[in-house]
Amino acid sequence: MTPAQIDSFFATLQAANPQPQSELEFTSVFELLAAVLLSAQATDVGVNKATRRLFPVANTPQRILDLGVERLEDTIRTIGLYRSKARHLMQTCRILVERHGGEVPRTREELEALPGVGRKTANVVLNVAFGEPTMAVDTHIFRVGNRTGLAPGRTPYEVETKLLQRVPAKYMEHAHHWLILLGRYVCVARKPRCWECLVAGCCDFSPKTVAPQGN
After folding, report:
1. What range defines the domain where residue 184 resides?
2. Residue 179 forms part of a structural domain
3. What is the pLDDT of residue 68?
4. Considering its fold, how many domains does the chain have in total?
5. How far is CA 6 from CA 104, 143, 169, 204, in A?
6. Domain check: are 36 and 110 in the same one?
7. 101 within some domain
8. Mean pLDDT score of the chain, rounded to an integer?
9. What is the rounded distance in angstroms from the CA atom of residue 215 to the CA atom of residue 197?
10. Is 142:128 a contact under the CB 8 Å cutoff?
């Protein structure tokens, strides 16, 4: 993709959805951190189902510590890997209370020092909660970056680095959400829905797919 195509790509996504939102449900920075921590190898729908049970009873680090690991496990049992996620969340809550006054830190280094929080989770929190121009590369963004020619790379970090280099600064605040939504609903894994794609004209993928007959 050329710089002109990249600008047109994001201008089109912006025009269609000026204020994209995360599909995870949260009302505070800590709820966002907890939801993203729980989302590894799980869908946003599945995480929201669990946090709708968890957050009404425990939505701060201290309240989750007070809940205890067994009740936490029981509350998030519907999520895959719930035991290890419960352990990581409890450890993270303890660190937040003991070292950060119960608040979520605002630096990458401090976020990535929390159990269960890797680069992708830290990038989501930095971008969504604090407005930092970061790019959290999940499976959807990795696929879109490679398939479209926007940011080809062999690893999530390579794709992230290229996106940070190639996405114009004026689009960086929301680029993460636009790319996730594009990958989740249109540029899907098995067969991209090019016939529905607003940015197909800017994309290197070829040949473009066509609508199944009868649609």
Report:
1. 3-19+135-202
2. yes
3. 92
4. 2
5. 34, 16, 12, 11
6. yes
7. yes
8. 93
9. 15
10. no
